[in-house]
Design a protein that fits this description.
Layout lengths: L2 H11 L2 H10 L10 H11 L3 H9 L3 H10 L7 H10 L3 H13 L4 H9 L4 H17 L7 H14 L5 H17 L4 H11 L16 H10 L13
């Protein structure tokens, strides 16, 4: 399928109810409001396609940009291209899912994440924390810089309540992800979660809530799911 064919298909798959929900969460025109399930039907036809994913992301259409992330080839996309994607990720479905998912699956994802969390731009910093979270979830512990993750927990513990809105959300998620995926840091992450307590994040006109990290981690521990890794960050 070509970019033009996909855009036509996205238009026919648009759903007004989904579009209204996405607008409440921060999406802006142009986009059609395509459900993720319908995006994945298109993905079955295109499979991973590096050049096509770049073309789709460049359209600025949120549906096409999200599909581009699902379609991206983590072995071919470059750090420069991902930095461009992060800069254009104007709402959290793109900045905290699409871009970090792809970044976390690359060989340079960890370094990108570290670079991004130092940004003063909210969308970039939140993408960084999300990338580091997903990176821990898809890589074996022996490949991770455990000491750095420990240091990052200390940084979150100290800075989270003064951080920018969506950065607070992804920092909270980082504590959960670290405790969930890195066995040797589960206790440390739980300690940080308890000290952090409830994190206040403005979720706009939505009913979304911020999970209490300590409660979430306890459930993971009780279910015996600590240390489990994922085959892919994307879903």
């Amino acid at each position: 399928m070509t970019k033009e064919e996909i855009l036509k298909k996205l238009k026919t798959c648009g759903n007004e109810g989904t579009k209204k929900i996405y607008i409440k969460h921060g999406a802006k025109e142009p986009f059609f409001g395509v459900k993720v399930a319908d995006l994945k039907k298109i993905l079955k036809k295109t499979k991973k396609n590096h050049e096509l994913s770049l073309e789709l992301y460049a359209t600025g259409n949120s549906d096409a940009m999200y599909l581009a992330g699902l379609m991206a080839d983590e072995t071919k996309i470059t750090a420069i291209e991902l930095e461009e994607w992060a800069d254009k990720a104007y709402w959290y479905m793109l900045s905290e899912y699409t871009v970090p998912w792809v970044a976390a699956e690359t060989a340079f994802g960890f370094n990108l994440g570290l670079k991004w969390i130092a940004s003063s731009e909210e969308r970039i910093a939140s993408a960084g924390w999300a990338t580091l979270s997903y990176y821990a979830g898809v890589n074996p512990d022996e490949k991770l810089d455990i000491s750095k993750y420990q240091t990052l927990l200390d940084i979150v513990e100290k800075d989270i309540h003064q951080a920018q809105n969506r950065v607070r959300y992804t920092m909270n998620g980082f504590v959960i992800a670290t405790g969930m995926h890195i066995k040797t840091l589960t206790n440390k992450a739980m300690d940080s979660a308890v000290k952090i307590g409830k994190v206040q994040v403005s979720m706009g006109e939505t009913a979304c809530k911020v999970p209490l990290a300590s409660t979430y981690l306890k459930k993971i521990i009780d279910k015996g799911k600590v240390g489990k890794k994922r085959k892919t960050a994307r879903c």
